[in-house]
Amino acid sequence: MNTGQWLGLFTGVLFGFLLQKGRVLRFDKQIGAMLMKDMTIFKFMLSAILVGMVGILLLSDLEIITLSHKPMNVGAVLLGGGLFGTGWAIMGFCPGTSIGALGEGRWHAVFAIIGMVVGAAFYAELYPLFKSTIIAWKDFGKLGLPEALGISQWVIVPIFWVGVITLFFWFEKKKL
């Protein structure tokens, strides 16, 4: 294995450990999130985004990594988000938490994992159809938020941080 693969394995195991320690693999937390009664999963995800966005942008500015945006495609986002949400609602797991739950020994997560693999296979088979229909709908190209707004990414970061931290305080006030 090369360095990148070792790094991927290490960060994957670390992420799984943090998912387990954050209790976001628990079914009650998943259901609570879907019912908007328990924000544990959202707090976990937003915390990861806050840290990750600063780290990735710093690495990009230091030219250690190169950012490569995916095309901003409304049709693909709506289709992907709809499938993701449907799968999460049916199984009570998102892709990361299903793998983590299996790692905890909850064998029913296998059905979610099989569903992801089958779904990916269907998508691969239907890709030519999607490419000329759904994916062709409202394609804005490789566009990030800073480019869309015409401002520096370092203006967006503190605004996002303030917004998320304010949201955290609101969650705590509402005991979510």
Descriptive account of the structure:
By secondary structure, the chain is mostly helical. It has one domain. It has 8 helices and 2 strands, in the order αααβαααβαα. A two-stranded antiparallel ribbon has the order 1-2. Helix 5 runs antiparallel to helix 6 (109-132).
Mean pLDDT: 89
Radius of gyration: 18 Å
- Note the overall shape: globular
Largest sheet descriptor? 2 strands, antiparallel
Strand residue content? under 5%
Unreliably modeled segments: none
H/E topology pattern: HHHEHHHEHH
Helical stretch tally: 8
Please estimate the helix content: over 70%
Structural class: mainly alpha
Neighbour order of strands in the largest sheet: 1-2
> What is the total domain count?
1
Number of strands: 2
Distance between the termini: 43 Å
Quick structural overview:
This protein has 176 residues and is mainly alpha-helical. Helices cover 72% and strands 4% of the residues.
